[in-house]
Amino acid sequence: MKNYKVILAYKGTAYHGFQRQSNANTIQQEVEEALGRLLGENVTIYGCSRTDAGVHAREFCFNFHTENPIPVKGLLFGCNAQLPDDIALLSAEQAPDDFHARFCAKGKEYEYIVHNSAVKNPFYSDSAYRTARHIDEKMLDSEAKAFVGEHDFRAFCSADCTKENTTRIISRFDVRREGELVIFTVAGNGFLYNMVRIMVGTLLTISEGKLPCGCIPSLLESRDRTLAGRTAPPQGLYLNRVFYAEGEYMQSEHSAP
Amino acid sequence: MKNYKVILAYKGTAYHGFQRQSNANTIQQEVEEALGRLLGENVTIYGCSRTDAGVHAREFCFNFHTENPIPVKGLLFGCNAQLPDDIALLSAEQAPDDFHARFCAKGKEYEYIVHNSAVKNPFYSDSAYRTARHIDEKMLDSEAKAFVGEHDFRAFCSADCTKENTTRIISRFDVRREGELVIFTVAGNGFLYNMVRIMVGTLLTISEGKLPCGCIPSLLESRDRTLAGRTAPPQGLYLNRVFYAEGEYMQSEHSAP
After folding, report:
1. ipTM of the complex model
2. Are B174 and B219 in a shared domain?
3. Among the partner residues A9, A88, A125, nearest to B85 by beta-carbon distance
4. Residue B214 exposure: Cα atoms within 13 Å on the Cβ side
5. Same domain, A82 and A121
6. pLDDT (tens digit per residue) in A91-143
7. How far apart are CA A196 and CA A157, in angstroms?
8. Which residues of A are catalytic, by number?
9. Which of A114, A141, B24, B235 has the most CB within a 10 Å radius?
10. Are residues B10 and B88 in contact, defined by beta-carbon separation less than 8 angstroms?
11. Is residue B256 predicted with pLDDT exceeding 50?
12. Which of A95, A116, A134 is the last residue of a domain?
């Protein structure tokens, strides 16, 4: 039995997230069906995380097991030919038997893209979140640094979050501008449900003057979701990559994929 | 009665082209319905051209008449709020009574984007045409220059084309590379049905070695559609802008929108 580690990219617009659901179209279902048709067997894939409906991934990771002797190149081209245009396998390699894309993940890097313009741009409608009011990206970059370090992120996860331990380490939180786009990049050892979207939503709330500058440390201390800002919508969020080497997420840099 | 000249951008993926059809969703129908709801009257818009299903526009132009005294800003923001995310009005201005977006057009500029990669990229799937075989963009830039000038383009329009006069002036045809993207930019005083897609398809056929370098002058002379290359698919094509000043298309430059 071989265990394959596979890197996957997808545009999430048309899907109800990664994880298979009985009544909705998901990335997992598309990939399992494509691999199943290629290999002639039932395939179960194990994803590095769930992603919400409409969220994208540049380098998602999953693993799966097969007895099929298909070479890696055949696996990639064969599966890509079966997949819809908005999902693609980027690479695959054999992994140790005990590799599991979710349980072995040591960290992740996300990006959130805001289209900062009073005018709609049809070419960004499903790949960025538009907000008209001007964003001072240098101010937000400075505010975002309050998230860096080891903190209890209870106030920055969905009320639906069932995790006992809500302490995580954020190694990087940068905000920069590229023309009309404001790009938030955050890396850390783990993320709670909706955590990136609530952190970005809180920064946008600060930018709009509805929360004061310097409020993030006290929001973290409060552990109260209702005091933090809104949840930024899904279409701006990208899972950039997953780290499997110990401490690798600490080296997340601007040279992201 | 005011006559408005309006600039429109749209991502054509979800639409059956610009022009209203009885049984399919089109850009014209969406815009007419949005304007109709805003102005409380039946609105007919006159587009600068048809575009095919899946083709995009960065600066399409249309005009329409109304008695409504709504200010231009209200027109823009009101209509954009009614339009789906993949269609946006960019600007509007009052035009002379006899301005007609199609009949007054003196030229147009198009762009065609090829994603030149062996690997699918889900983020380009509906905004570029992917081809795996390496493109020598300098060679194609040189080949494309054979289209520049006044020629009979009968061999480069769809067999469905009903135009008597198939002579057009092409003022510019450039091919350049930006990473994995190869970008074709063409401007001229008018374009026949499918003409840009057939010219690009012919250049790609030359790139693949299935037509010889230097063949374009004899293809033009042949006036025979069956001798030219294939029609490149719609998702790579963008109407960049429309020129209304005499000779303006001659000045089309790399500073396209």
Report:
1. 0.81
2. yes
3. A125
4. 0
5. no
6. 999 999 999 999 999 999 999 999 999 888 999 999 999 999 999 999 999 99
7. 8
8. 52
9. A114
10. yes
11. no
12. A95
**What is the reported pLDDT for A257?**
41
**B124 and B238 assigned to the same domain:** yes
The boundaries of the domain holding residue A13 are: 2-95
Residue A104 near chain B (CB below 8 Å)? no
Number of H-type helices and E-type strands within chain B: 5, 10
CATH for B164: 3.30.70.660
Closest residue in chain B to residue A124, using alpha carbons only = B86
For residues A143 and A216, membership in a common domain is answered with yes
Total structural domains in chain A?
2
| Residue B114 bridge partners (DSSP) | B129, B182
Percent share of chain A, pLDDT over 90: 87
pLDDT of B187 > 50? The answer is: yes
A10, A90, A123 member nearest B11 (Cβ): A123
Instruction: Considering only the beta carbons, identify the residue of A11, A87, A120 that sits closest to B85.
Output: A120
Q: Could B88 and A121 be called an inter-chain contact, meaning their C-beta atoms sit closer than 8 Å? A: yes
Residue A92 sits at the chain B interface (C-beta within 8 Å)? no
Instruction: At B237, give phi and psi (nearest 5°).
Output: -95, 135
- How far apart are alpha carbons B12 and B240 in whole angstroms? 13
Which residue in A has a C-alpha nearest to residue B80's C-alpha? Answer: A120
Does residue A254 carry a pLDDT above 90?
A: no
Q: Is residue B155 part of a domain?
A: yes
pLDDT at B128 over 60: yes
pLDDT score of B249: 79
Tell me the shortest Cα–Cα distance from B80 to chain A, in angstroms.
8
Identify the domain boundary among A68, A95, A122. Answer: A95
Q: Does B119 touch chain A (CB under 8 A)?
A: yes
What does the angle CA B88 – CA B94 – CA B97 come to, to the nearest 5 degrees? 120
Q: In the A/B pair of chains, how many CB contacts fall below 8 A?
A: 50
